[in-house]
Amino acid sequence: MTDENEVASKLALLGLTDQKLNDVLKNKKLAFALASIVQECGAESALEDKSTASLLQSLGTATKDIPDTSVLAARSLVTDAVVTKKIKSNVQLEAAVAYIRSAGEKANSADLDIAAGVGQEVTPEMIDKEVATYFAENSKSITANRYKSIPSLMAGIKNLPGLKWAPPAEVKKAIDRKLLEVLGPKDERDAPPKKSKMEKTAPNAATVEEPKKARNMFTEGFLGDLHKPGGNPQIKPELMTGHLKATNGIVVTRFPPEPNGYLHIGHSKAIAVNFGYAKYHSGICYLRYDDTNPEAEEERYFTAILEIIKWLGFTPYKITYSSDHFQRLYDLGEELIRRDKGYVCFCTPEQVHESRGGDNGGARIPCKHRSKPIEQSLDEFRAMRDGKYNPGEVTMRMKMDLEDPNPQMWDLVAYRVLNAPHHRTGDKWKVYPTYDFTHCLCDSFENISHSLCTTEFYLSRQSYEWLCDALEIYKPAQREYGRLNITGTIMSKRKIARLVKEGYVSDWDDPRLFTLVAIRRRGVPPEAILSFVNELGVTTTNSNIQVARFETSVRRYLEDHTPRLMLIPDPVLLILDNLPDDYVELIALPYKPGSPELGEHNVPFTKRAYIDRSDFREQDSEDYFRLAPGKSVGLLKVPYTVRVTSFRKDESGKVTEIHAIYENDRKIKPKTYIQWVGESPAHNSPVRISEVRMFNRLFLSESPESNPDGFIADINPNSLDLYKDAVIEVGFDDFRKTNVKEGGGPENMRFQALRVGYFCIDRETTEDSVILNRIVTLKEDAGKSSA
Predict the structure, then answer these.
(1) At 76, phi and psi to the nearest 5?
(2) Which of 94, 258, 307, 585 is catalytic?
(3) Is 566 exposed, middle or buried (0-12, 13-18, 19+ CB in 10 A)?
(4) Fewer C-beta neighbours within 10 Å, C or N terminus of the chain?
(5) Dihedral of CA 624/625/628/630: which sign?
(6) Structure pTM?
(7) Burial of 70 from C-beta contacts in 10 A (0-12 / 13-18 / 19+)
(8) pLDDT one-digit tens code per residue, 659-685
(9) Is 258 among the catalytic positions?
(10) Which residues make Cβ contacts (< 8 Å) with residue 593, sequence separation at least 6?
């Protein structure tokens, strides 16, 4: 089913609105899954029922990312159960999907009915009885906590065995009725306690810490369901005995990047999962460079990977390399051949492709070299090692199971010839192991208890386990979670390299990119990234997250952890004509309102000050509240308002000077306040900024690679705005000195520029030239122009 019109016609049967239909068609996986489900239904009349159509849509969403063909084949059982009204709720649907995932090709209708609670009707009377019993057993706690106990009540009652298949909405109604019966209507005892201002801002208040306990990705979802060390079965029991003796039964994980490029935002999740899971369980995590492709590896990538891991707050238990084990891997390659589980193949890539069924998925045909004598393959494998063959001429393959439906069992390549020097072993080796051969064996060597990777390796789990068992060595447990993708950008190393080469971005750390070196340079705190990953949680479904959501998470973190300063990106001089030339008033500004522990600083308010050009209009209007002729406006923290009386322009029509009066003879409540920076040489004010870089989205759409003219055509021509004459208040100098004293790098010097955005200092900054990078805008930024 590849024709889009055919897919659309089938989706229309689900009663989708035009907008919803268009949205689904953009998600090809979901569209194909739903179209297949409609085809499985058979009778179109069955889809006329809205509840049935809704459940089938949920089924499509739940199964769109399942790669196992046997599970997808079993999905028709679930479809039929929904259409025939045996499955009536999302609770049942979730249980049914979980059943076919585990049963695969062994799935059948009878077992599905049992797993999904088919026929197990839960009446309102039964729900009321279960709820009443729970209330009776927990009456003391419910009476004491009253309506505050609702969340724990819902969780506890939902997990009662007798209510497993009860409609959640009916359970909620029963709980509400019982609460009203037992407690009566809500009164003053149920109102949230009033907090004083001191309570709200107290840094050590217990309530401040509570939100951090609300979600923990290591105890729920995918990671919460993982086995304990020792819980992964072995082909021989003594293998597990040896493993537990070597590890003392602790969690052992690894992060195994290929050192052939810079890590991107998706890798932050892999780092957090592998290092974080081990750390949470008091275990250890290796950093293992998977350096088996010398043609693509460079020293700068090794260095950058380690720096990023440390930047994110993790320290590897040990740094290892796949190349540490080249000799041992080669020896196991020979052992595999001796066990008649490997052979040397002289087929071309095209011949191998055809023997695996070709483009049309035909019958798989054993390679003609598969049945050669063991000794012959051993001799040829050694000849490969000794450099007697050219690259592409010969490979060593694993003798697996061609009848298995999983392509990862179709005699994968274990070794290939490469005439390239290795950065660590030099010219010693002419053959290099593949990922499929290396990965599981190195995991075994390092006694990994949890080999955690993303779902694109789901099918590889079978070949991973096959190789360990074929060699009768300790077999780690590979488990797969959904990867993190950010929409509206690109992650491909090849495409980023083109952006750099053709000058669309400055380098791999250009802050408009989503490589981790770029994100670090942009000023995004590592803690914000880890918080973002934790918010998303870890499941088996890939996360496709919009940039806006990522930036919201970053903004939330910065809001709580940055001082406030006044920055004027595009300054214009404001002269208060009624003040004396030598007038100076020191205005005390807190670094962060509500956080007295961060201290305060003084800024000079004088006759001459700078405001931002965007805060002035030559003509006033009713919906405009900032500076304009005749309008009174407040300057942040200054006691009185100012009112514009006149302004001057240069020959090009650009405003160069604004004249106003300081209205210190009367008290006016202004409709808005704007930031400012006073001119006072005695106080070294203002501080001049050489360049302010306002970064915007690099691409115009959420899917740059979908542009019919290519991703380059989707580049935003306004992705960078530069301001060369910016000024900032004198508090910036103290802020900068404090950060240097504390050992922070330039990107760690972050602050909120009031009414402008969040900024950090760029790495190109010198003593005489300060460069600022905008990290993210303020929440209010989008509406500023109309304020």
Answers:
(1) -60, -30
(2) 258
(3) buried
(4) N
(5) positive
(6) 0.71
(7) middle
(8) 999 999 889 899 899 999 999 999 999
(9) yes
(10) 564
